[in-house]
Amino acid sequence: MSKHLQRDLDRLQRGILTLASSVEAAIHKAIRALKDRKIVVAREVIDGDSLIDSEESQIEEECLKLLALHQPVAVDLRRIAAALKINTELERMADLAEDIAERALHLAELPPIPVPAKLQRMTDLTTTMVRQSLDAFVNLNARQARLVCRLDDEVDTYNVAIIAELIETMKKSPDMVEPGISLFSATRHLERIADHATNIGEDVVYLVEGEIIRHRPVEED
Question: Per the structure, how many domains does the chain have?
Fold first, then answer.
């Protein structure tokens, strides 16, 4: 690998990590706005999405420039291909965080609804998946990437439990139906963020091993 390609790959990696940090912060803010009925925080997430979109576009342009300029092969080519896919996954996570913030704004106008305690644990686990999937990318660690994929089952379990709790709350009080549906929607958005983190984990396995494991049970690997 030429020193110029290595320099450009390092810059690309820093850009992705910066984007990931912005996305992780947006997720935390969105859930905080949801739980604490913080309108100002929700609007910060919504207003900040345009900056994340701009970062995503810059990274995509950088990836295309690297492909044209260096014509990489083998692992270098896979690294840029993985970066392109990870970049898209992060932008979609940011969109979902914005969706959660919009639910928070709607909920702030409705009667307060008890927020299941499991929602914070689900959020912590989801952001852990995001962080570890990016660590796996930086360190070219396929084992860590597979562990991220396995964590998705725990997030799904939290999702099912939270939705069941919300349904019971809505059954007990008609006034809770509208806020319950909004909270239900926000929980599903969070679960989708975990799915995107799983996709990044699968992209890392492809990067390191050249093997596509998407649509296959994690246990096989």
Answer: 1
